[in-house]
Amino acid sequence: MVIRDPSGPSIPGVTTPTGYNSLPQSSGTGLPSYKDLPTQATSSPIVPGTPEWYQDQLGGIYGAPIFIGITPGQILTGPQSEHGGGGKLQTESKSNYTNTERLYKSFLAMSHSNKNAYMQIQGQLYDAGFYGDSPRASVHWGLLDDSSRDAFKRALDNYVAASTGAEVPITWNEFLADQAKQGRINQSQGGVGGAGPGAAPPQVQLTDPAQIAAYATRAAEDMLGRAATPEEINKFVSSFQSQQREAQLSTASSATQPDLGAGAFAFIGQEDQGEASAHQARAYNNALLNKLLGPGASTLPNTNPTPGAV
Prior knowledge:
Elements: H1 51-58, E1 65-71, E2 75-76, E3 89-90, E4 94-99, H2 100-113, H3 115-127, H4 146-163, H5 172-188, H6 209-224, H7 230-249, H8 260-271, H9 273-293
Antiparallel strand pairs: 1-4, 2-3
């Protein structure tokens, strides 16, 4: 069999390689024409973090503008014209925008760089209903998972829809806060002692998950000598907010709001009883050593008998 060399004569006695005929042929100029190239796209995985990945994640709202606020114009003083006019002059204010891709990137990065701010956004997303029908205890507070990513993308979808064509622009932070506030009102309507016809529904005020986590961490440091684990924080946030909701929606006159500080210490002490007891014992021994040997002492005095001593 003889193969054909597009740029030269046939070479006898050489077997044609498999797939040779699929190579692009010359268009007369010596170079392959784009019409000769395969038109079917090759499949390749989308690498996370690339523009293609964010476009796949955000779909139709990829790159949509997000209004984040207004920077007041700079106030200038002194002569403002060659004719001697002067005084204060404020330059034009500037509207600041980002887009869905940059805001989504910021949310993903925040899960590692700023846990407290990340959990605050998680709380707003949950109250606004962007986690769907998932119970509050199922949210992995402080952790980045598929449900939190999906909740944030739903919020972005809603913001873009609400801001399109709006006469007065609303910032992203205002939108998320308003959605969370309205969501808490909606959630309270089906609670115990819900509002009657024509009555305003009771509003449930829940403590920010980031603040609850801070108290849990402090309690763990005092009682266990270490920071609280993500699992402990997640469990305490869900437990404390459930107590708040029950107390605020209860019709019993004896219902009282739970105390965050006392609740954190009680939870940590009950959750890790053995570890708490061991830490308290070590703290007691250290205090005793300091009292016997003075501040900074770390060893007991030598009580072994000295040879030759009477």
